[in-house]
Write a structure and sequence with these properties.
The chain has 143 residues and is α+β, with helices and mostly antiparallel strands. It is 30% helix and 23% strand. It has one domain: 2-Layer Sandwich (Muramoyl-pentapeptide Carboxypeptidase, domain 2). α2 packs across α4.
Length: 143
């Protein structure tokens, strides 16, 4: 898996799962990369959310680097965004490391959305104006 965070400019190429076994060191590296960049708070990203990213990328037939807009979001940041009227959910899956907002520069946003929907593994939010797709491991739903 290859990830690039647009807010910090950090990049990571990591094998977080090898032969069906999650790798603690790889997951810790992902947790650090996808931390709340505003507060620098690190929270464990649910490996199943990473599995969704891999499955979507595989369905698209690419090994391109995901550009991450948001991984983990702390309660402090979420409250700030709520006060600013930024349209975030009060009980966002980002708060529990179960959601990631991404785009693939090598694919159209609509392709990423369709692949996420076809997977049927959780929520898929489509934000074309903001330039990303939200993928989470909550109930299957779309917006």
């Amino acid at each position: 898996m290859s990830l690039y965070t647009v807010n910090t400019g950090e990049q990571l190429r990591v094998d977080y799962c090898i032969d069906g076994r999650y790798q603690a060191e790889g997951l810790r590296a992902v947790d650090h990369l996808l931390r709340d960049f505003r507060t620098d708070e690190i929270y464990p990203i649910d490996a199943r959310a990473l599995d969704v990213l891999c499955a979507v990328r595989d369905a698209l037939g690419t090994d391109a680097t995901y550009h991450v807009v948001c991984g983990y979001r702390s309660a402090i940041t979420n409250e700030m965004k709520l006060r600013e009227g930024r349209g975030v959910a009060r009980h966002s899956y980002h708060l529990t490391g179960k959601a990631i907002d991404v785009f693939l520069p090598t694919r159209q946003l609509g392709e990423l959305r369709r692949a996420g929907l076809a997977l049927g593994a959780g929520g898929v939010g489509y934000y074309p104006r903001a330039g990303f797709v939200h993928l989470d491991i909550g109930p299957v739903r779309a917006w």
